[in-house]
Amino acid sequence: MNTKQLIALSAAAFAMLGAAGAAHAETYEGVQSIASQASRADVRTEAVAAAHSGNPYAEGANAGPAPVIVSATSRAAVRAEAVAAAHSDNPYAEGASSGVAPVVTSTVDRATVRAAARAAARGDALPL
Question: Are 119 and 126 in contact (CB under 8 A)?
Answer without folding.
Answer: yes
